[in-house]
Protein backbone atom coordinates (compact mmCIF):
# COMPACT_ATOMS: atom_id res chain seq x y z
CA UNK A 1 0.00 0.00 0.00
CA UNK A 2 1.20 3.53 -0.78
CA UNK A 3 0.54 4.64 2.82
CA UNK A 4 3.13 2.07 3.95
CA UNK A 5 5.82 3.47 1.66
CA UNK A 6 8.95 4.79 3.37
CA UNK A 7 11.45 7.33 2.14
CA UNK A 8 15.06 8.15 2.95
CA UNK A 9 15.22 11.92 3.36
CA UNK A 10 18.22 14.24 3.74
CA UNK A 11 18.40 17.81 5.01
CA UNK A 12 21.69 19.25 3.78
CA UNK A 13 22.91 22.14 5.90
CA UNK A 14 26.09 24.15 5.92
CA UNK A 15 26.97 22.77 9.37
CA UNK A 16 25.20 19.40 9.63
CA UNK A 17 23.43 16.87 7.44
CA UNK A 18 20.31 15.40 9.00
CA UNK A 19 18.67 12.32 7.57
CA UNK A 20 15.82 10.04 8.45
CA UNK A 21 13.17 7.57 7.38
CA UNK A 22 9.67 9.05 7.00
CA UNK A 23 6.56 7.24 5.81
CA UNK A 24 3.87 8.48 3.42
CA UNK A 25 1.65 9.73 6.24
CA UNK A 26 4.42 11.90 7.67
CA UNK A 27 5.62 9.73 10.55
CA UNK A 28 9.32 10.25 11.28
CA UNK A 29 10.47 6.73 12.06
CA UNK A 30 14.13 7.47 12.75
CA UNK A 31 16.47 10.46 12.54
CA UNK A 32 20.23 10.97 12.67
CA UNK A 33 22.83 13.62 11.85
CA UNK A 34 26.50 14.08 11.03
CA UNK A 35 28.82 17.00 10.28
CA UNK A 36 28.64 18.26 6.72
CA UNK A 37 31.82 17.43 4.77
CA UNK A 38 32.80 20.74 3.16
CA UNK A 39 36.18 19.93 1.57
CA UNK A 40 34.91 18.82 -1.85
CA UNK A 41 31.98 17.35 -3.76
CA UNK A 42 33.48 13.86 -3.49
CA UNK A 43 33.91 14.15 0.28
CA UNK A 44 30.35 15.44 0.55
CA UNK A 45 28.83 12.61 -1.50
CA UNK A 46 30.70 9.72 0.14
CA UNK A 47 28.69 9.43 3.42
CA UNK A 48 25.42 10.02 1.57
CA UNK A 49 26.16 7.16 -0.82
CA UNK A 50 27.10 4.99 2.14
CA UNK A 51 23.70 5.62 3.73
CA UNK A 52 21.86 4.98 0.45
CA UNK A 53 23.58 1.60 0.32
CA UNK A 54 23.07 0.90 4.01
CA UNK A 55 19.31 1.50 3.87
CA UNK A 56 18.76 -0.18 0.49
CA UNK A 57 15.47 -2.08 0.47
CA UNK A 58 14.02 0.12 3.23
CA UNK A 59 12.95 3.08 1.07
CA UNK A 60 10.84 3.79 -2.00
CA UNK A 61 12.39 7.15 -2.84
CA UNK A 62 15.12 9.63 -1.93
CA UNK A 63 14.43 13.27 -1.10
CA UNK A 64 16.88 16.09 -0.43
CA UNK A 65 16.58 19.60 1.00
CA UNK A 66 19.61 21.67 0.01
CA UNK A 67 20.92 25.25 0.15
CA UNK A 68 20.87 27.08 -3.17
CA UNK A 69 18.39 27.46 -5.99
CA UNK A 70 16.92 24.29 -7.49
CA UNK A 71 15.53 24.27 -11.01
CA UNK A 72 12.68 21.86 -11.67
CA UNK A 73 11.97 19.39 -13.15
CA UNK A 74 15.63 18.56 -13.86
CA UNK A 75 16.61 19.13 -10.19
CA UNK A 76 19.80 21.08 -11.02
CA UNK A 77 21.27 23.05 -8.11
CA UNK A 78 22.53 26.60 -8.61
CA UNK A 79 24.84 28.35 -6.18
CA UNK A 80 24.70 25.81 -3.40
CA UNK A 81 24.70 28.44 -0.67
CA UNK A 82 27.46 27.68 1.84
CA UNK A 83 28.37 24.57 -0.20
CA UNK A 84 29.54 26.10 -3.51
CA UNK A 85 30.71 22.76 -4.93
CA UNK A 86 27.02 21.94 -5.43
CA UNK A 87 26.70 24.67 -8.06
CA UNK A 88 25.25 23.31 -11.32
CA UNK A 89 25.18 19.78 -9.98
CA UNK A 90 22.39 17.24 -10.27
CA UNK A 91 22.63 14.89 -7.30
CA UNK A 92 21.05 11.99 -9.14
CA UNK A 93 23.98 12.02 -11.60
CA UNK A 94 26.47 11.41 -8.79
CA UNK A 95 24.64 8.81 -6.72
CA UNK A 96 24.19 5.09 -7.29
CA UNK A 97 20.52 4.42 -6.61
CA UNK A 98 18.46 1.23 -7.07
CA UNK A 99 16.58 1.08 -10.36
CA UNK A 100 13.19 2.77 -10.22
CA UNK A 101 13.89 4.75 -7.06
CA UNK A 102 13.14 8.46 -7.64
CA UNK A 103 15.55 11.16 -6.44
CA UNK A 104 14.09 14.62 -5.86
CA UNK A 105 15.71 17.81 -4.59
CA UNK A 106 14.21 21.00 -3.16
CA UNK A 107 15.62 24.25 -1.84
CA UNK A 108 15.76 24.35 1.97
CA UNK A 109 13.56 27.40 2.45
CA UNK A 110 10.92 26.04 0.11
CA UNK A 111 11.13 22.65 1.83
CA UNK A 112 10.37 24.33 5.17
CA UNK A 113 7.34 26.04 3.66
CA UNK A 114 6.16 22.75 2.13
CA UNK A 115 6.42 21.02 5.52
CA UNK A 116 4.31 23.67 7.20
CA UNK A 117 1.86 23.67 4.28
CA UNK A 118 1.52 19.87 4.37
CA UNK A 119 1.19 19.14 8.08
CA UNK A 120 2.17 22.26 10.00
CA UNK A 121 1.30 25.84 10.84
CA UNK A 122 0.62 26.95 7.27
CA UNK A 123 -1.82 24.11 6.57
CA UNK A 124 -4.91 26.30 6.88
CA UNK A 125 -3.19 29.44 5.56
CA UNK A 126 -3.78 30.86 2.08
CA UNK A 127 -0.80 33.23 2.23
CA UNK A 128 2.17 32.69 4.52
CA UNK A 129 5.95 32.55 4.78
CA UNK A 130 8.33 30.10 6.38
CA UNK A 131 11.58 31.70 7.58
CA UNK A 132 14.45 29.31 8.25
CA UNK A 133 17.15 30.70 10.53
CA UNK A 134 20.37 28.76 10.24
CA UNK A 135 23.72 29.24 8.54
CA UNK A 136 21.89 31.76 6.34
CA UNK A 137 18.27 32.91 6.07
CA UNK A 138 16.01 30.68 4.00
CA UNK A 139 12.50 31.50 2.97
CA UNK A 140 9.54 29.76 1.44
CA UNK A 141 6.42 31.55 0.22
CA UNK A 142 2.93 30.09 0.21
CA UNK A 143 0.63 32.21 -1.95
CA UNK A 144 -2.98 31.31 -2.69
CA UNK A 145 -2.51 28.03 -0.86
CA UNK A 146 0.45 26.84 -2.95
CA UNK A 147 4.22 27.06 -2.81
CA UNK A 148 5.37 30.01 -4.92
CA UNK A 149 8.71 29.33 -6.63
CA UNK A 150 8.89 32.41 -8.87
CA UNK A 151 9.80 32.77 -12.53
CA UNK A 152 13.35 31.50 -11.96
CA UNK A 153 12.80 29.19 -8.96
CA UNK A 154 14.41 31.77 -6.65
CA UNK A 155 11.49 33.24 -4.72
CA UNK A 156 12.36 33.28 -1.04
CA UNK A 157 16.14 33.49 -1.44
CA UNK A 158 16.27 35.94 1.43
CA UNK A 159 19.98 35.51 2.11
CA UNK A 160 20.65 37.64 -0.97
CA UNK A 161 18.79 40.70 0.32
CA UNK A 162 21.20 43.62 0.66
CA UNK A 163 21.42 46.45 3.14
CA UNK A 164 21.57 49.88 1.49
CA UNK A 165 24.32 50.84 3.93
CA UNK A 166 26.55 47.93 2.92
CA UNK A 167 26.29 46.63 -0.63
CA UNK A 168 28.97 43.99 -0.16
CA UNK A 169 28.88 40.35 0.95
CA UNK A 170 28.83 41.45 4.59
CA UNK A 171 25.69 43.44 3.88
CA UNK A 172 23.78 40.37 2.71
CA UNK A 173 21.02 39.12 4.98
CA UNK A 174 22.54 35.64 4.84
CA UNK A 175 25.41 36.98 6.95
CA UNK A 176 23.61 39.66 8.97
CA UNK A 177 20.75 37.25 9.72
CA UNK A 178 22.83 34.13 10.29
CA UNK A 179 21.79 32.31 13.46
CA UNK A 180 25.10 30.45 13.43
CA UNK A 181 27.04 33.73 13.33
CA UNK A 182 24.88 35.18 16.12
CA UNK A 183 25.60 32.17 18.34
CA UNK A 184 29.31 32.34 17.54
CA UNK A 185 29.40 36.06 18.40
CA UNK A 186 27.71 35.55 21.75
CA UNK A 187 29.86 32.50 22.56
CA UNK A 188 32.99 34.51 21.79
CA UNK A 189 31.87 37.40 24.00
CA UNK A 190 31.06 34.99 26.83
CA UNK A 191 34.40 33.19 26.31
CA UNK A 192 32.75 29.80 25.88
CA UNK A 193 35.07 26.95 24.95
CA UNK A 194 32.80 25.80 22.12
CA UNK A 195 31.75 28.70 19.90
CA UNK A 196 28.97 26.56 18.39
CA UNK A 197 27.35 25.66 21.72
CA UNK A 198 23.85 27.00 21.05
CA UNK A 199 22.44 25.47 24.24
CA UNK A 200 24.83 27.37 26.49
CA UNK A 201 24.27 30.56 24.47
CA UNK A 202 20.51 30.31 24.95
CA UNK A 203 20.97 29.51 28.63
CA UNK A 204 22.67 32.89 28.86
CA UNK A 205 19.98 34.62 26.79
CA UNK A 206 17.15 33.12 28.82
CA UNK A 207 18.95 34.03 32.05
CA UNK A 208 19.12 37.67 30.92
CA UNK A 209 22.92 37.90 30.57
CA UNK A 210 23.27 41.51 29.28
CA UNK A 211 25.79 40.97 26.48
CA UNK A 212 24.00 37.90 25.17
CA UNK A 213 20.61 39.63 25.29
CA UNK A 214 21.94 42.71 23.49
CA UNK A 215 23.40 40.70 20.58
CA UNK A 216 20.36 38.40 20.41
CA UNK A 217 17.89 41.29 20.40
CA UNK A 218 19.80 43.04 17.62
CA UNK A 219 19.67 39.80 15.65
CA UNK A 220 15.90 39.49 16.15
CA UNK A 221 15.51 43.12 15.09
CA UNK A 222 17.22 42.28 11.78
CA UNK A 223 14.75 39.44 11.19
CA UNK A 224 11.81 41.65 12.22
CA UNK A 225 12.93 44.32 9.77
CA UNK A 226 13.07 41.67 7.04
CA UNK A 227 9.50 40.62 7.88
CA UNK A 228 8.31 44.23 7.73
CA UNK A 229 9.90 44.76 4.31
CA UNK A 230 8.50 41.49 2.98
CA UNK A 231 5.06 42.23 4.38
CA UNK A 232 4.86 45.55 2.56
CA UNK A 233 5.31 43.63 -0.72
CA UNK A 234 3.51 40.29 -0.34
CA UNK A 235 0.93 40.94 2.45
CA UNK A 236 0.61 37.47 4.01
CA UNK A 237 -1.33 36.27 7.04
CA UNK A 238 1.42 34.49 8.90
CA UNK A 239 5.17 34.05 9.26
CA UNK A 240 6.40 30.80 10.82
CA UNK A 241 9.92 30.69 12.21
CA UNK A 242 11.99 27.58 11.63
CA UNK A 243 15.58 26.39 11.95
CA UNK A 244 17.32 24.91 14.95
CA UNK A 245 17.08 28.02 17.14
CA UNK A 246 13.29 28.16 16.69
CA UNK A 247 13.00 25.39 19.30
CA UNK A 248 13.72 28.18 21.80
CA UNK A 249 10.39 29.98 22.47
CA UNK A 250 12.25 33.24 23.07
CA UNK A 251 13.22 33.39 19.38
CA UNK A 252 9.75 33.82 17.88
CA UNK A 253 8.55 35.92 20.82
CA UNK A 254 11.47 38.37 20.53
CA UNK A 255 11.14 38.61 16.74
CA UNK A 256 7.44 39.35 17.27
CA UNK A 257 8.24 41.96 19.92
CA UNK A 258 10.83 43.66 17.69
CA UNK A 259 8.40 43.61 14.77
CA UNK A 260 5.67 45.28 16.82
CA UNK A 261 8.12 47.99 17.89
CA UNK A 262 8.71 48.73 14.21
CA UNK A 263 5.01 48.48 13.41
CA UNK A 264 3.82 50.77 16.20
CA UNK A 265 6.84 53.05 15.92
CA UNK A 266 5.79 54.50 12.57
CA UNK A 267 2.15 55.65 12.65
CA UNK A 268 1.79 55.49 8.86
CA UNK A 269 2.65 51.80 8.91
CA UNK A 270 0.27 51.07 11.79
CA UNK A 271 -2.64 52.92 10.19
CA UNK A 272 -2.09 51.51 6.70
CA UNK A 273 -0.79 47.95 7.01
CA UNK A 274 -2.19 44.95 8.86
CA UNK A 275 0.33 43.22 11.10
CA UNK A 276 0.82 39.51 10.37
CA UNK A 277 0.98 36.73 12.93
CA UNK A 278 4.51 35.61 13.80
CA UNK A 279 4.91 32.18 15.39
CA UNK A 280 7.19 29.19 15.73
CA UNK A 281 6.90 26.58 12.98
CA UNK A 282 5.50 23.21 13.95
CA UNK A 283 8.52 21.19 12.87
CA UNK A 284 11.37 23.35 14.16
CA UNK A 285 14.64 21.78 12.97
CA UNK A 286 12.90 18.87 11.19
CA UNK A 287 10.90 21.00 8.75
CA UNK A 288 13.27 20.49 5.82
CA UNK A 289 13.04 16.71 6.14
CA UNK A 290 9.25 16.78 5.93
CA UNK A 291 9.21 19.37 3.15
CA UNK A 292 11.73 17.51 1.00
CA UNK A 293 9.52 14.43 1.26
CA UNK A 294 6.37 16.39 0.41
CA UNK A 295 8.09 17.73 -2.72
CA UNK A 296 8.88 14.13 -3.72
CA UNK A 297 5.32 12.96 -3.01
CA UNK A 298 3.87 15.81 -5.08
CA UNK A 299 6.11 14.87 -8.00
CA UNK A 300 4.81 11.29 -7.86
CA UNK A 301 1.14 12.31 -8.05
TrEMBL record:
Pfam families: ROK. Keywords: Kinase, Transferase. The keyword Kinase applies. GO terms for molecular function: kinase activity. InterPro entries: ATPase_NBD, ROK. SUPFAM superfamilies: Actin-like ATPase domain. Belongs to the ROK (NagC/XylR) family. This is Transcriptional regulator sugar kinase. The lineage of its organism: Bacteria, Bacillati, Bacillota, Bacilli, Lactobacillales.
Amino acid sequence: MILMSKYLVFDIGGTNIKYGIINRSGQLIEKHRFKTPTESLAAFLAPIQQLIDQYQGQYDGLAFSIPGKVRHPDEIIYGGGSLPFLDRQRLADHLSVPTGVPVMVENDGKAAALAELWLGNLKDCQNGVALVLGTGVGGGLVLNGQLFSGSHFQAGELSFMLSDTDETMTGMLGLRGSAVAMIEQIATELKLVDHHDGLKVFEAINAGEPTAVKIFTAYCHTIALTIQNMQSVIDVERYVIGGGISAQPIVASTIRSEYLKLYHGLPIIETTLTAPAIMTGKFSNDANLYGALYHLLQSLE
